[in-house]
Structures are given as C-alpha cells and as structure tokens.
Design a protein that fits this description.
165 residues, mainly alpha, two-stranded antiparallel ribbon, 55% helix, disordered N terminus
Length: 165
C-alpha cells in the first residue's frame, strides 16, 4: 500500500471521538430495543417486587443487537456512524475489507471487559464499573505504543483503523 492519506493509521484521539459518536447511536439502539421489548411483554420486562429483576433474555438480546450494529457497519464498508464524520475506516492489516471472522473477533474482544460486570454481586457495582473502565483504558492505551496505533481488539482481529481521504 502507498503512503497516501488512506494508509495513515488513526490517532487514538480520533478513534475515541468517533467512539463517542457511536455511543450515541448505541444509546438510541438500546432505547428502541428496550421500548419494543416493553411493548411485546406488556410492560413486564422488568419486575419490581422488592428489587428490580430484568428478564433473563433481555441483556443478551441487547448485546446481540449492539454487536450486530458494529459488525454490519464494518462489513458494509468498514465504517460505523461515528467513523464517517471523522473519515475513518476499518480494514484488515493489508488494507482489504474486513471479513466476518475479523469483525466477530473484534467485537468480542472489544466487549470482553463487560464480563467484569459479573463481579458486581460480590464486589459491588461501583467496583465492577471501575474494573470495566480500567480494562477498556488498557485496551485502548495499547494504541499509544503500537507503531500502527492498533488497540487490543485490532491486534486480536488483525484489523486497523485508518484515516481516509
């Protein structure tokens, strides 16, 4: 690949700003899925008899829908809504389009810190949330030392985020 603007790796600050944009899209998706689920269950999605209980299938469903947003976006052109205004594209290390295996690995590794929320019953929700934030900080901090500015999920999936012309 040439040394054109398209081949330039994405700086961490740009990646994080695009992620903020994507978080707004994810928030909207989560709200719509929540609304639809509430309508389908007749308002019985969350039971409040002493303490709130969410239906067992609701959080996995939300995870699948949010994962699908990222995977479909990456497969359909390498860009999420947040990546478009910042002119970023996800590619394989050789510059070609991302395939389903890379997209799946990337979303699974990027979402892995969310598993730390499972320690909340023992350590408390505040501690679990801090553990997730710290894990994600480590995931992204790797881009500061990687010569191609890849995060941990990029390294695991063999992908790169590149600036495009």
């Amino acid at each position: 690949m040439s040394t054109s603007l398209q081949a330039l790796p994405c700086p961490l600050w740009r990646r994080l700003i695009a992620l903020v944009y994507d978080l707004l899209a994810v928030l909207a998706i989560v709200m719509v899925v929540g609304y639809v689920c509430q309508r389908i269950t007749g308002g019985e999605l969350i039971h409040t008899g002493g303490h709130a209980q969410i239906a067992w299938w609701y959080q996995p469903l939300q995870g699948l829908v949010v994962s699908a947003y990222f995977i479909v976006s990456w497969l359909r052109g390498g860009q999420t809504l947040g990546m478009r205004p910042w002119r970023l594209r996800l590619t394989r290390a050789d510059g070609s389009k991302v395939g389903l295996p890379q997209a799946l690995i990337r979303v699974l590794v990027a979402g892995a810190p969310l598993l730390l929320l499972e320690v909340a019953p023992w350590l408390g929700m505040r501690t679990a949330l801090w553990a997730v934030v710290i894990a994600w900080a480590v995931w992204f901090a790797i881009a500061l030392i990687d010569p191609r500015k890849r995060t941990l999920h990029d390294i695991a999936a063999g992908t790169e985020l590149r600036r495009i012309a």
